[in-house]
């Protein structure tokens, strides 16, 4: 494969997301216009507003122009990085999102780490010990995890580990007595950089329960996917060849089977981003985790429409981008996809 | 064969042969049978909720607030699973919650399945610009995390049980559209469709009478799994205060209302969650079983 065709593949795939992205801006734009009553009316509240002031405000928000004109202006603002200002805090929406996003990434990263570290070996064991107690246990637990209402699961974890045993804190990112300058926004990195080990331990202990809660569903998905991918691979001819060559069992499993089984599994891990962000909304709400999920729920509850609109646009952009990256990586590891 | 079996369970009038064959395949999996048994039980609970519940779901026994379950110290057999912070019987509320959850699942899946199948069939049959517009729109909806999309819809329509159902129907839509489109594209090339067209069948008849019955299997499986995500999402919306509103005995909103009592009275939190878990698990078990029985391609 030459570099030219690789580039062509990347460009072809990347161009596919442009219509999706345009669709997302349309959806975010439509959101404001689908809400019953116009934004000015919502601002005025119960008492109403005199017509002259209403006209002025409509003009100020650009709401007196035609819809296509308003949409064009909206996209122009978005491309300049202006997503409006929050109605409650009067801060720029993009700035608020960027401040809170590292907290969500930190949580999501550890949730995925946990899900992979547990789910992958569990799936491998289930496949190797097919139809044994170990297999049934892994499959039973993962189906339960997959069906778990995670807001309730999070509460059970708090009830047991925080309330009964007192091992972990109930909520937040770090105990209040620690004041660590937010340089990267990632609490673990910032506390390490400050050299404050007590603060680091506090941050880590705050991270454990939310990561378990958020990681449970991806863990179940990864375990199920690993098992079926392994079962698929174990039947291949090259597995028989490897056994016939007299290779040791661990080498057959880890090198020959796992490497091939990993391709679909990695794709699944990558495609969990949407699921993970759905879960983050609930997990962050329960643990008062100061991330974008919590922020979005507050935005909806306080009818802060610029926050909802901007948040939806940003989250969708992230999901689309991550899916694209997964797609591209998949093409890189699997040449058959590139020529599709 | 799988397609005929799919038909058989959808109208129940087909010859016993395929039905029996489907049942043979389905009953091979113990998990699928457990799921089916649980669902039958839940449906009975929902239908006879008024008869079974020992108390009316919203009756407040003011002198019996936060009574623990019967087996705990201080519990009484009058309130088997205890009472909530305002003295309502937990068991009765949970039973009535079954009715709500199954209804939410049924209505949102029905709306989504009908609309999604119609859109997908049109996209796959008409092709061209119509298909592009429909499928790109579905891509946009899939780009949003499901709960976020549901929250956005509720932000537009306003919180409430009915609006939560619409929101969930919209969230589930892309899956049915994609499945129906793929099935139509695969079926439309086959000869029985061509022969029906030559016999003079119009596009609507071809789509819904000729092709649709032969692509039911994946749609039925997806509808069953859709039930579980509908129930989960509805409970999540209720929990966030965006779905069913108090005093509706919906499991998610029951959980939300009991949060501050979690340390003193864990039963107000454990039971509603357990009810959600069991229901979702039952539909997932049945969905997996149906997939194995209806879709020979996925069978190992």
Keywords:
heterodimer, A: 340 residues, mainly alpha, 0% strand, B: mainly alpha, 71% helix
Quick description:
Chain A has 340 residues and is mainly alpha-helical.
Give your account of this protein's structure:
The complex is a heterodimer of chains A (340) and B (300). Chain A has helices at residues 3-34, 39-44, 51-60, 67-79, 93-128, 133-146, 150-164, 187-194, 197-234, 237-244, 249-271, 273-287, 292-301, 305-333, 335-338. By secondary structure, chain A is mostly helical. In chain A, helix 6 (133-146) packs across helix 9 (197-234) and helix 9 (197-234) runs antiparallel to helix 12 (273-287). The model of chain A has no long low-confidence stretch (mean pLDDT 85). In chain B, helix 3 (30-47) packs across helix 13. Chain B is elongated and about 75 Å long. Chain B is built from 13 helices and no strands. The longest helix of chain B is centred in the middle third of the chain and has 37 residues, at 90-126. Chain B has 300 residues and is mostly helical. Classes of the chains: A mainly alpha (340), B mainly alpha (300). At the A-B interface, helix 1, helix 6, helix 7, helix 12 and helix 13 of A face helix 6, helix 7, helix 11 and helix 13 of B.
